[in-house]
């Protein structure tokens, strides 16, 4: 009996140490590199899709390796002859989450270059940077531009001037085909007193494409070939046999509905054909379903949350899921409440906090809930927990990020990001 207890204790100790060790290691191990490397940093999948196209254009996998910046350490660049960087810019001119650690390490190498031979560290490296951004922002393609300069300061030779591309064009350059889907149903999830939030269901007579929770779809408003695409987070999984979206009506300053959200939520007839393209977004995939999962969203961010709940529901023995979700109005008659209550009843959501910003008694945003539960959040995330955040970047996305930094502390926060446990679908 005592022997059995000792064996069990030792097994538990070995398992715990292996989990801790695994999660403290930055993901730096790489396969042997081809002479040409295509490295990408992608927040919404566009840069990854372009990187795969670049790989094909450079002769395919036999000639060019492709990998996210999260799996690359700067010194490995001295092993390749040429590196092509395809990088998005995120937030206020920052790198996407899967490029942050690489960028910090490159900055540190550059800072040290004044005191050492780092100034010529990459003297045998040729490179190009293809930067993606949104031209409406003043820091358009800022991360790509910074990367371009840092590499030059470390001795690498640029083959071309910095290439920039507007994200609206990039969204059209993904590997999946456009398909015709039928708008099968449209349900209002909130009350009339707020800007409409609608659940849309689409069916397709062709074989369904593959997609996963975390992916996006691109839509041309009103099926107009000339219109700039809009992207939406997928709210279902293929096992649902339908593609779901959750769309918030955008109201312009003149009080009109936005072009695409107005079409999808009001003017498109039920039964109407809608051209959709599924856009892979691997930075939002959650692969470890036994680990705790903290989901945070507000408003239309429900879309990505719903996709992940549907994926989690298919797993055997899934880990705990804590949802923190914000909407304006506390009215319990909203469809939103019954939709989320269903996931709770099924046991997929194990902990749930609402935040209602227009509540007359206790107005709160998701970040207020986080502030009040900061120690619980740290404990819940632990060494293996994952966090997925979906919704608006301004306001919610930035405030949630600040709260996570506070909860985890600067060093643990950096490790958590570098380990790819922070997934953000923010817009
Ligand atoms: C990764 C991602 C995921 C998203 N997920 C969701 C989601 O799940 N649910 C949701 O409701 N929304 C989501 N959005 C927002 C969505 O893509 C639209 O921006 C939103 O629906 C408003 O579009 P609209 O056409 O109705 O509004 P509009 O006001 O007509 O347009 C809004 C934006 O579209 C672009 N645009 C409009 N006209 C033009 C033009 N002529 N040329 C170039 N650009 C133009 C501009 O960026 C403009 O600010 C997501 C956005 C991104 C980037």
From TrEMBL:
Annotated FAD-binding FR-type domain residues: 176-287
Flavoprotein found in the keyword field: yes
GO CC entries: cytosol
Protein's UniProt keywords contain Electron transport: yes
Keywords on record: Electron transport, Flavoprotein, FMN, Transport
Catalytic activity, EC: 1.6.2.4
Pfam family, one: NAD_binding_1
One term of GO molecular function: FMN binding
Domain Flavodoxin-like: 36-186
Gene Ontology biological process terms in this record: homocysteine metabolic process; methionine biosynthetic process
Protein name in UniProt: NADPH--hemoprotein reductase
Protein species of origin: Arsukibacterium tuosuense
């Amino acid at each position: 009996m005592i022997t059995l207890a000792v064996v069990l204790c030792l097994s538990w100790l070995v398992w715990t140490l292996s989990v801790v060790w695994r999660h403290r290691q930055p993901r730096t191990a790489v396969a042997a590199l081809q002479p040409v490397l295509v490295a990408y940093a992608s927040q919404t999948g566009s840069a990854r899709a372009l990187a795969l196209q670049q790989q094909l254009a450079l002769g395919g996998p036999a000639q060019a390796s492709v990998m996210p910046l999260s799996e690359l350490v700067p010194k490995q660049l001295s092993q390749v002859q040429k590196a092509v960087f395809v990088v998005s810019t995120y937030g206020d001119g920052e790198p996407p989450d899967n490029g942050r650690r690489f960028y910090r390490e490159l900055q540190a190498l550059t800072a040290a270059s004044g005191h050492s031979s780092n100034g010529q560290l990459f003297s045998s490296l040729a490179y190009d940077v293809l930067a993606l951004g949104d031209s409406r922002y003043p820091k358009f393609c800022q991360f790509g531009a910074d990367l371009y300069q840092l590499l030059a300061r470390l001795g690498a030779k640029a083959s071309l001037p910095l290439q920039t591309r507007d994200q609206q064009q990039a969204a059209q350059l993904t590997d999946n085909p456009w398909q015709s889907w039928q708008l099968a149903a449209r349900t209002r999830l909130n009350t009339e007193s707020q800007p409409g939030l609608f659940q849309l269901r689409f069916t397709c007579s062709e074989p369904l494409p593959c997609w996963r929770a975390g992916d996006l779809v691109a839509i041309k408003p009103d099926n107009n070939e000339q219109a700039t695409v809009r992207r939406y987070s997928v709210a279902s999984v293929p096992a649902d046999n339908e593609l779901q979206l959750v769309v918030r009506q955008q109201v312009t300053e003149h009080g009109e509905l936005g072009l695409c959200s107005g079409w999808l939520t009001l003017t498109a007839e039920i039964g109407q054909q809608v051209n959709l393209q599924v856009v892979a977004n691997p930075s939002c995939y959650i692969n470890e379903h036994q680990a705790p999962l903290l989901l945070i969203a507000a408003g239309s961010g429900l879309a990505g949350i719903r996709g992940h709940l549907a994926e989690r529901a298919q797993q055997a023995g899934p880990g705990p899921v804590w949802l923190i979700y914000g909407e304006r109005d506390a009215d319990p008659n909203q469809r939103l409440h019954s939709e989320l209550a269903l996931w709770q009843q099924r046991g997929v959501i194990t902990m749930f906090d609402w935040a209602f910003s227009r509540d007359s008694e206790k107005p709160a945003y998701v970040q207020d809930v986080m502030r009040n539960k900061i120690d619980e959040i740290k404990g819940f995330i632990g060494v293996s927990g994952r966090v997925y955040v979906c919704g608006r970047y301004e306001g919610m996305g930035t405030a949630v990020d600040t709260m996570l930094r506070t909860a985890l502390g600067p060093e643990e926060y950096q490790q958590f990001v570098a380990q790819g446990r922070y997934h953000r679908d923010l817009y």
